[in-house]
Design a protein that fits this description.
The chain is mostly helical. The chain has 2 domains: 53 residues, no CATH class; 74 residues, no CATH class. 72% of the residues lie in helices and 0% in strands. It is built from 7 helices and no strands. α3 crosses α4, α4 packs across α6 and α5 crosses α7. The longest helix has 26 residues.
Length: 138
């Protein structure tokens, strides 16, 4: 099996996937139990593309605020963290974890209105509306 059979290099994400496939083939990275490297690399590609897209959207949103470029990484990390929460938890638990994340990233120096806008526009999660629903639930 050749590396090009698994993945053909073109752009930045594809180069990362090629490195990942090479590490799987060399045994320096752990394989899945079924040994399906091609599917494992495809999942890695999908998550890398999703991360790149979110990164780009956050940076575009931050361009409308007077936020230094070096701070954008904090907002990207917040977005990735909240995305994991959105995938794993439901309703009231989700709300409290997102609220805790907001407070943590505000302690890091992020602006609350920007964090809430990221939740609302990029993640389709309105924190204020979720607060009303969490407080209304029995």
């Amino acid at each position: 099996m050749k590396l090009t059979d698994i993945y053909h290099p073109n752009n930045r994400v594809e180069r990362a996937c090629r490195r990942y496939a090479r590490s799987l083939m060399n045994g320096s990275n752990s394989r899945r139990g079924d040994g399906n490297i091609k599917e494992q690399v495809q999942r890695f590609q999908e998550s890398s593309e999703r991360y790149s897209l979110v990164n780009l959207k956050v940076r575009q949103l931050l361009n409308s605020y007077p936020i230094p470029h070096w701070c954008s990484l904090l907002y990207v990390n917040f977005t990735n963290h909240v995305t994991k929460i959105m995938d794993r938890y439901e309703s009231r638990t989700r709300y409290y974890l997102v609220l805790e994340s907001l407070n943590r990233w505000m302690a890091y120096g992020c602006q609350e209105k920007v964090l809430k806008q990221i939740c609302r526009e990029l993640l389709n999660y309105d924190v204020d509306k979720a607060a009303q629903e969490a407080n209304a639930a029995p």
